[in-house]
């Protein structure tokens, strides 16, 4: 079982929630944490998770989950509602990068995802979820690539590819039709010329017989 599947099963399913997305992260800047705050358990992995309740009305949460070294268990550390999210900073709108920031009413964290692709997937799902579930005062997404804010970029890319292929095929058919049309016109002209020639030749032949 993958870490994300285990998190969903251990942390969210027991509370009748469904995990929508998760990204493994580490801090860009070291944060001093008292020894007692971690229970003296040493190193750990951190995941930022997005979840929604199964019961209506739906409530969406962003949760910080940790797994301490030497333990197979996942521990919920901090949690915010989606309405407490104020800003998502993608850091660089011109290229894929693993860095991103999350700003809440009472917290601000600077993260580095395991990869640019993981960060992009998480931000994309987070944006879609905010558009669907958050209050009228939606969080601000800044310095994010446009492909992350337009729904499912994979589906959009596929749709664009299909549309482009259809347009090219249609253009090719139109051009072929035009060429066939011109060929038919030339054939018709040649047929008419041949018929006129035959008529003229017949008249001349009849004239000479007379």
Distance between the termini: 104 Å
What is the general shape?
A: rod-shaped
Query: Biggest sheet, in brief?
Result: 8 strands, mixed
DSSP strand tally:
8
Helix-strand string: HEEEEEEEHEH
Q: What does this protein look like?
A:
The protein has helices spanning 3-12, 116-133, 153-209; strands at 17-27, 44-53, 60-68, 75-81, 85-89, 99-104, 108-113, 140-142. With 210 residues, the protein is of the alpha+beta class. An eight-stranded mixed beta sheet has the order 4-3-2-1-7-6-5-8. The longest helix is centred in the C-terminal third of the chain and has 57 residues, at 153-209. The radius of gyration is 33 Å and the shape is rod-shaped. It starts with a helix and ends with a helix. The relative contact order is 0.10.
Short structural description:
By secondary structure, the chain is of the alpha+beta class. It is built from three helices and eight strands.
Pick out its properties.
210 residues; alpha+beta; 3 helices; 40% helix; eight-stranded mixed β-sheet; single chain
């Amino acid at each position: 079982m993958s870490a994300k599947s285990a998190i969903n099963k251990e942390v969210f399913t027991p509370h009748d929630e469904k995990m929508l997305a998760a990204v493994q992260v580490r801090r860009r800047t070291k944060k001093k944490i008292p020894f007692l705050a971690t229970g003296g358990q040493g190193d750990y992995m951190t995941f930022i998770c997005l979840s929604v309740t199964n019961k209506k009305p739906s409530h969406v949460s962003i949760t910080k989950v940790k797994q301490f070294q030497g333990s197979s268990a996942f521990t919920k550390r901090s949690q915010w509602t989606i309405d407490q999210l104020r800003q998502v900073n993608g850091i660089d709108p011109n290229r894929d990068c693993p860095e991103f920031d999350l700003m809440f009413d009472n917290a601000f964290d600077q993260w580095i995802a395991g990869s640019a692709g993981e960060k992009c997937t998480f931000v994309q799902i987070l944006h879609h979820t905010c558009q669907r579930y958050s209050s009228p005062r939606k969080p601000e997404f800044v310095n994010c690539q446009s492909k992350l804010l337009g729904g499912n970029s994979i589906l959009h890319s596929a749709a664009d590819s299909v549309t482009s292929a259809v347009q090219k095929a249609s253009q090719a058919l139109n051009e072929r039709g035009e060429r066939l049309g011109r060929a038919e016109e030339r054939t018709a002209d040649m047929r008419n010329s041949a018929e006129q020639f035959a008529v003229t030749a017949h008249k001349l032949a009849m004239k000479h017989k007379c």
